[in-house]
Amino acid sequence: MYSKNTLRRNALRVLNVPSNELVQEESFIKKIKIKNEGSTVGFVKEKETELIVPPYEKLEKNDSRFTKTLTMLKNKKLRQRKGKMLIEGKRLINDAIDAGIELKTIYFSREKDLADIKFKFQNDVEILKVFYKTMQLWSELHTCPGIMGVFNRPTVERLHLLAEPVIPVTLLCDNIRDPGNLGSIIRNAAAAGCENILLTKGCVDPWEHKVLRAGCGGHFRIPIITDIEWTHISNYISKETTIFIADNSSDIEAGSFTPEFINYDEAPEEDRNEDGEVEVKKYVTKNEFEQAVSVDETYNEQTELEKYEDIDLPCYLYSSIQFPTKNIVLYIGGETHGVDARAVKLACDYGGKKVKIPLENNMESLNSSFAMTVILYEIKRQLGEHYVLKTEEIKCN
């Protein structure tokens, strides 16, 4: 007899499995193929492809080589002193290798990731396998890609060889502190074909991991000069340069549609010497490479800079200016602090002006990287025919 609360279970179907037939474990089943005829289900095991990987060393838990290297790379001063940079992810690592940047060490956790790395033109690369959880602790990404590369930071001379400038534009970045913003600036400047990028002291380190990530390989295709003092800025700009300041805080000049480029801010005659050059307070010193450097101390004199705080440079619609065909410097400032008085002084010294992108819906400003890109492609549009003809002449010769 069964009580009322007793559970009763009846057999629904009995399957007879032949004893000579092995049942495969689910972990070994690579693919399930459903056949059309009947209801038969067959299991097909894919052939595993053999991975071709170079010899490597597996780090044990007590091996501190990985953590010591990452500690050094996370510190800006140590990173600069050693001349190293850290890159995460297969795509960016391969971009750096394709550009000829010297690879020193690869850390990985899965062989399939290592197999995708192109080790061409690379010698004496140290390849170390690290536990994924250890790598995940040091990764700057939300999802660790499982592979990291330590590279020698490329020199400016090396990047000059790799770059192919299309427009005669030098970017002057001042007080850009957001890594993603600077990374976008470098990426878009390389894509537009600028000549080089100058970063004043105070900008975020362009070889910091987040900037490299946002740059998407642009770092390896355009020369970048960092930590420039304002007193040294004249060493990086030729005397024939014209400065353009991207600024949305100024009002556009009435009737600013100029048919040709005009230098509106030439220095007064009384400020010029017998050779017609502008007189500024300068002296010559040497930098860390024992190279002669001209120093202009007026960029450090507060009383001198106060004169430029209230100066309103002429501001023009970005698409109405006829840009010169050489020696253009485009100034991009930080979005928070706006245009520095030293940038206004620089523009006055070099016959500069402001350019503005019109905005709608009461928006005050654009992201600095986006504003820069709009102006760069307007310059590229205007100078496109000139550079197409120049390229054709080179091919013919």
UniProtKB/TrEMBL annotation:
The record ties this protein, via Pfam families, to: MRM3-like_sub_bind, SpoU_methylase
Give UniProt keywords alphabetically.
Methyltransferase, Transferase
An example GO biological process term is: RNA processing
Record's keyword annotation contains Metal-binding: no
Name all MRM3-like substrate binding domain ranges: 68-149
Q: Which GO terms describe its molecular function?
A: RNA binding; RNA methyltransferase activity
* Top-level taxon in the UniProt lineage: Eukaryota
Q: Where is the tRNA/rRNA methyltransferase SpoU type domain?
A: 169-248
Sorted alphabetically, which InterPro entries does this protein's record hold?
Alpha/beta_knot_MTases, MRM3-like_sub_bind, Ribosomal_eL30-like_sf, rRNA_Methyltransferase, SpoU_MeTrfase, tRNA_m1G_MTases_N
In the record, the note on similarity to other proteins reads: Belongs to the class IV-like SAM-binding methyltransferase superfamily. RNA methyltransferase TrmH family.
Q: Which PANTHER family match?
A: RRNA METHYLTRANSFERASE 3, RRNA METHYLTRANSFERASE 3, MITOCHONDRIAL
- What is the name of this protein? rRNA methyltransferase 3, mitochondrial
Give the organism's phylogenetic lineage: Eukaryota, Metazoa, Ecdysozoa, Arthropoda, Chelicerata
Q: Which gene encodes it?
A: Mrm3
